[in-house]
Amino acid sequence: MSFFKKFFSKEKEEDLNKGLEKTRQGIFSQITKAIAGKSEVDISFLDDLENILISADVGLQTTIKIIERLEKKVAEDKYLHTEELNQILKKTISNILAENNTVDLEDLPLSENKPHIIMVVGVNGVGKTTTIGKLANQYREKGCQVVLGAGDTFRAAAVEQLRIWCERSGSHFYSKGMNTDPAAVAYETVQYAQNISADVAIIDTAGRLHTKKQLMEELSKIKRSIDKKMPGAPHEVILVLDATTGQNAIEQARHFTEATQVTGIALTKLDGTAKGGVVLGISDQFKIPIQYIGVGEGMHQLQVFNRAAFVDSLFA
After folding, report:
1. What is the mean pLDDT of residues 152-161?
2. How far is CA 189 from the centre of its chain?
3. Residues 26-38: tens digit of each pLDDT
4. Are 72 and 282 in contact (CB under 8 A)?
């Protein structure tokens, strides 16, 4: 059985459905009420739909895009039943994700030349360290040798938290302790991973310094340090965002994408919010693939993002 098939087992499908339950109920129960008793999809309904999507944190720009595409379809077909409307929305949302580089990952990424270096960024409190630990566990289950680098050297207990995740996932741990140079930690983590022929190295980074400017400069410095040790690395820069923060997550994405070349997004805590529409807004605004979503606290509830599975669950 392939890793992809195992990953989207019945259990994973149930986790995804449960994780999106609040968003699904928040959006589609309101759409059903808005269209009830109407003989056509009129301006009044489109206004209601706009408000529903914005309340789910889809974002204004993306909402307008969805409404415009729906208006075009309505102009062609005149009348749409609720089921037809849902199918059009489903197709529109899937197309938006596809247009913005989000693809159905069939496996965890690995570069041809070991080690595969992943730099993880994000503000404190979004679940960055937990995401690193869960991702390390998934690579370990594939049989990969993994190193975790403790590059968040400014936050109290950050190093120790990462050490605990190393023990849980069976990964190697590299640290220079607290209040040390994060760029040096990143450089030496790569070196350590090369020395032991590790398959993957995941490097944690600071989530807060005295100013945003200082933080972004630090992240740029870490990225340069990694590239100096292994040209072309990091192979991935994953931005971790908390779905429950809605539009604030979009603002964070704006700052981090300006500081470093983010290649993918991990969106955590989707199970705790009715505002899962932020997945669409982030993908549409920044043209960055959604790679992972958190749909629960369990070790295996960080899921490789699959566009088809996500949209199917959203419209289940």
Report:
1. 91
2. 24
3. 776 777 777 766 6
4. no
